[in-house]
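A further point concerns the way the authors explain their paired sequence and structure data. Showing the layout once, in full, would remove most of the difficulty. For illustration, here is how one protein appears when written out as sequence plus structure tokens:
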Amino acid sequence: MAGRESLRFGHEDRKRIYGYVERHGSATLGELERELKIDPGGLRHHVAILKRDGRIEADESGSFRVSLDGGEREEHRAEDVEFAIRPARQEDLAGIVGAIRQVAEAGTYIVAETVADEIDHQDALLRHNEIESRMFFVATVGEEVVGWVHIHGSELEKLSHTAELTVGVIDEYRSRGIGSHLLNRGLEWAGSQGYERVYQSVPATNEEAIAFLEEQGWEVEAVREDHYKINGHYADEVMMAIRLP
């Protein structure tokens, strides 16, 4: 798929270094040396090659993280608030989990709840390995994460043209266009990576989310009756999708 090369490293130690950083979200040079037992000179050589090849990058503290090109930070203003849309960083993990849990607390965004549980358990925000790819963009007001968009794709050949998306904005900042900006940024990135179709599933009780997606050009592809049981009541799952140019 365009923009998603298969992961080849040319050396087993390079693969081990990348795998450790990818699984843990970030790692310092000392941590890599301690955990992987690689000769310090060889470790620095392999890290330099991984950085040169765009596999990993160093953050401001000097820790290494997986490099996923998400583009630049965008500044926006809507009514009484200025906000930014930018690629998420590992240090945004807690803010993203908090935002997702607030949006999902009414039990109307089951898939997002699962995403929050997964990244909280794994302690790694961005993923890119031979099985999956996971990217986040965030909306921030000041330093606070007020919304997110998450794109999760499979690297398995038969599913590599599809991705799943979740998007949400916390109550205080809704109705300002932030969700539309996040959704568009996520879909633009998905298209740049070669994905052809993007999916999202919500309970039928989440009428606001269904209406929002339909306004953005999404279509209902299927309905699974009584798929969820929310607060003791059954609810259908509405499966929605959009085809990318």
